[in-house]
Amino acid sequence: MVNDTIESLPYERRPAALYEPIRYVLSLGGKRLRPVLMLMAYNMYRQDVQHVLMPAIAIETYHNFTLLHDDLMDRAEVRRGKPCVHKKWNDNAAILSGDNMLVLAFHRMLQCEDRYMPAVMRLFTETALEIDEGQQYDIDFENRSDVTEAEYIEMIRLKTSVLLACALKIGAILGGASPQDADALYEFGEKLGLAFQLQDDYLDVYGDFRTFGKQIGGDIMCNKKTYMLINAQLRANEQQIKELNRWLNAENPSRDEKVAAVTRLYDEIGVPRLVRDKINCYYQEAAQAISRLSLPREHTAILWDYAQSMLNRKS
Hints:
315 residues; two-stranded antiparallel sheet; 2 strands
C-alpha cells in the first residue's frame, strides 16, 4: 500500500529537474518502517487506513530528505545499493531537492483531519527540530575523543528514535487514541528506535553488503563515534588501545586492512556482546511501554510482531 502510493504520486510542478531526484530517492525503496508504523498505530483504533496514507507518506518523505542530506554531508557514495543523489547528479541538486523534500513532507502532513492538525503539526515540527539537533551532535562528536555512552545514546535518540516515535504517536492521534495510549506508543517508538539504531551500528560492522545495501565498515573508516567504538575505547587494554589509536590516526589507510583490524579488536574486547545486550535492554523497555496500552492484546500483537522482525533484521 505504501509503495504503491509513493509510486503513484504525481510531480506536476516544474522545473522537472528539481523533482526528479525526489522521485529517484523515494523509488529506491527501503523498509518503509515509519509509514508502516504510523498505519499500524492508526489501525489499532480505526480501520480506514486509506485516510492517513498521505500523512504516512509525509513521514517517509521527511525521513528520505534526512538521508539525502546525510549522504551529502558524509560524502557517501551508495544508498540502498544505488548511487546517492549527489553522485548521480551533483551537490547542488542534492541540497535543493532535499530542501524541497522537506517542504513536501510538511505539505503532505497537512493533509490530515482538521481537528487533529494542531497536535500533529506541533509534534512533527518538534521532531524535525530534534532530528537536526541530533545531527549536529553527531557532527560535533567527530572532533571529540571524550564522547560518553550517555551522550551517544542521546544523540541517536534525537537523530533516529524520535521519528519512529513520532510516526507511532501521529498514527495514534489520527486514530483517536487516548493521550495515555498516544504517549505509551511514543515511548515504545523511542525504545524501539534506540534498539534499531544500535542494530544498524552492529550491521555496519558485521552485516553483509548484499543484504545491508551499503558498504560494510563505513563507520570504522570515518572513525565515527558509535556505541561500538566508544565501548572499545573504554574497555581496551593498553596494547589494544594503542593499536586502536594507531588505526584511528592512520592517514589514508587501506579500507580492507583498517576494517579488518578494528573489527578484530572489537571481537577481542567483546564489543559485539555489549551491543547485543544493550539492544535487548531497549527491546524489553519497548515491551513494557506497549503493555500499558488500553487495548486488548490481540489488537497490539501485529505491532509487536513487526517490532520483533525489525530487531531480527539483516539489512
